[in-house]
C-alpha cells in the first residue's frame, strides 16, 4: 500500500510538472500494486486520476478503459445491493 501511495503521489507531482508520460507510468505502477493488495476504493480513485490524465491528453478510448477498470473494481461480486455485478463487456 505504501509503495502504491508513493507512486500515486509521484504521478500527481509529474502531472503538476506537465510530464504526462511520467505521470501515466506512476499511475499504472500504482494500479498494479493496488490490484494485488485488493484495495478497491483506492484503485477506483487512481483509475479516475489516470482516466482524467488520458482524457486531457486526447486519449479518450484509453481514458474510458481506465474509468471502466475503476468501476469494475467498485462493482465486484458482493459489493452491489441491486443485484449481481454486471458482466464484463465483450471485447
UniProtKB/TrEMBL annotation:
Q: Where is this region: Disordered?
A: 71-91
What residue spans carry the Low complexity bias annotation?
A: 75-85
Q: Which InterPro entries match?
A: TPR-like_helical_dom_sf
Which Gene3D superfamilies does the record cross-reference, listed alphabetically? Tetratricopeptide repeat domain
SUPFAM superfamilies in alphabetical order: TPR-like
What is the designated name of this protein? Tetratricopeptide repeat protein
